[in-house]
Amino acid sequence: MPAGSQLPRQLEDWFAARGWSPRRHQREMLAAARAGEHALLVAPTGAGKTLAGFLPTLAELAETPGEGLHTLYISPLKALAVDVQRNLLTPIEEMGLPVRVETRTGDTSHEKKLRQRARPPQILLTTPESLSLLLSYEDSLTMFEGLKTIVIDEIHAFATGKRGDLLALALARLGRLAPGLRRVALSATVADPDGYRAWLAPYGDIDSVRLVQGERGADPDVAILLPEGRVPWAGHSGIYAIPQVMAEIETHRTTIIFCNTRGLAELVFQNLWKVNELKLPIGVHHGSLSLEARRKAEQAMADGKLRALVATASLDLGVDWGDVDCVIQMGAPKGSSRMLQRIGRANHRLDEASEAVLVPGNRFEYLEARAALDAVEQGELDPDIFRPGALDVLVQHVMGVACAAPFAGEEMLQEVRAALPYSALEAETFDRVLQFIADGGYSLRAYDKFKRLTKGKDGLWRVTKPTFVAQHRLNAGIIVEAPMLEVRFRNGRRLGKVEEAFGNSLSPGDTFFFAGLALEVERVELTDLIVRATSKQARYVSYMGARLAITATLANRVRAFLADSRQWARFPDDVREWLEVQGRRSALPTPGQLLVETFPHEGRHHMVAYSFEGWNAHQSLGMLITRRMEKLGLKPLGFVANDYALAVYGLEKITDPAALFSPDILEHEFVDWVQSSALLKRAFREVAIIGGLVERQIPGKKKSGRQVTFSTDLIYDVLRKYEPDHLLLRAAWADARARMTDVGRLAHLLDTAADTMLHMDLPRVSPMAVPVLIMIGRETVPQGAAEDALLMEAEAIAGEAMRLD
Fold first, then answer.
1. How far is CA 287 from CA 21, 144, 348, 427, 458, in A?
2. Which letter, b or e, does each residue of 457-482 get, where b requires 16 or more Cβ atoms within 10 Å of its Cβ?
3. pLDDT by residue (tens digit) across 444-484?
4. pLDDT tens-digit readout, 309-342
5. Are 238 and 368 in contact (CB under 8 A)?
6. Distance between CA atoms of 805 and 794, rounded to whole angstroms?
7. Domains and CATH numbers, the chain
């Protein structure tokens, strides 16, 4: 090792050959490793975070070469793991280090997985789900005993959700198998570093984790794209700007166009091709495409063969393609942290400004885009909300540990409590978890198929029979998608998957766009959709996945814009005029105020509430308010919602909106609605799958979504009737309340409504109501199918709203 350096000669020479020297935060990460400390690195995109995370590993392996697993790298995305492998192999080969680097994800072949367990590489790149599966094998006890370091990339993408629960439990397990294991986490967008330090540390010991802050990079160069005409009244796709987006592609080396949904990605891709007169190579990438299609697009980007790639969140974390010099966000970003991550994909270097363009879909989205820019410029990130660990995830983890070896209940409880999400887990609840795995619960204990664990005379819990081990490994996983159908050609070539609900709506001869192609259905099989390419007109695939909602951070900034007319000089003329007329015709809510407008329109009575609590909370509130309107005889006809407002319409005039927003709606209508709707059943389906109560696959065959749903619905009905306090019903309720309905924001809205409501009874529709009102009758129309008609109708309603007489 050179005098005065922490780096071995090979690494020192490699840096020098490039004219580089390690950055301060990279040296500090190396110092933390030399001191045996856990570390959290928070540094901007392009600061060399990944190299900082691996530098101690490369240094140790250069100094002391050896076989066996030295470092685990955990990635939130398969694409990121593959990208990191590609970027690690070059320096390792150039330094001549005898180090093997391999990936292990759901896409890895069975043969390679077997070899990795028998002869693991020194560095293994994987995901939380694949790590959890590895821990279910008997040889995991020896495979991980020499593990020195675990590196968690993009920790903000894990820690606050169920994948974070699974990873935290895996960390606790690894801590027992390899007591000297050092934990490292990396992120560019962490609002609460101490929260993540506690999550990363064993038993939440925050002082054991060194916080390393990276130096600030160049400020991003971000612009909001304005249309050649006016900012649209309605829509959220930004399709109106396709010619301008194509012009940006033509003037840059490589562009990534981010979309918030898979359906929008397909829509944008097709519309770009229509105006791609230069025939530039453009690809599409999202999670429903086949492995072959995704890898092909990723490799083409890495090789510099694409001028543009239309993508979803499948690529917005950490993937480093050096030739990307522009990022375009279609529609509003929905959060400052997400926007910062996506912007960072352009000019992936610390000293160069990332160039990005935001394409708002409508006038509210223009305000949201402006709010996101301001938040990023002022360093305000979206808050991270940590919560107790999910019980269905705990069930899966405990079953996986049992597959590897018998365990003692008390020791397992102490191990589980080392994971921060489960640090307050009560012994009685853990006993219920064990009992559920042992017999399925009181209502199901008569069935042998639910008796997965048994307690021996030695006091140890062990798997009842080998078939349960195979069943666990085949079905384990935290990500539960909607039931899917495989899309493939007659020759067997697979294109990807569409949701079963969409696939079952198709008949032979129907056409749809998918994977960048127009496809015609030849036949529909049990789990497959057989297609052929076509030149016919096609519809766009619709997805039922959760919609991204505006974060509270951006919502508060948008509200501040409405109340502060001094800010309006920054806005385009038509947006400024929209707000000015709103102020004269109705009112502009102040921060913390709930503006509610009532007015007649097209023979119906409408109520629009501007709460800015996000689409999920507004959807739930719409359900609850229409139920209450029914009870009050107000004859509701329906509701529509966006991130900013909720519109309810019916046959009777609403004279007292406050009565519809009382907090007791959560105690009465909410409980009735959740229990009588499909919401709780869907939540139960997910926790039943994660908890291993129902298997998605059996050896040699995958169940259809319909079969899985039938099984979970049957069990759900039995438990609701005979065991309403069942462990998984509790978990389903937690999911339904927190994740599916955004109940926290909903509760805040209802708690403050009475004190903050400003009711404006108007003679006709207001300017601010136009974007949400235009959605009536359009919610079920496939995305992109009626874009022109939508904009024309919006202009007609806007004409009425902006009239000042």
1. 38, 31, 23, 39, 46
2. eeeebebbeeebbebbeebbbbebbb
3. 888 888 999 999 999 999 999 999 999 999 988 887 776 77
4. 998 876 655 556 667 888 999 988 888 887 877 7
5. no
6. 20
7. 9-213 (3.40.50.300), 391-479 (1.10.10), 484-540 (no CATH), 552-669+742-802 (no CATH)
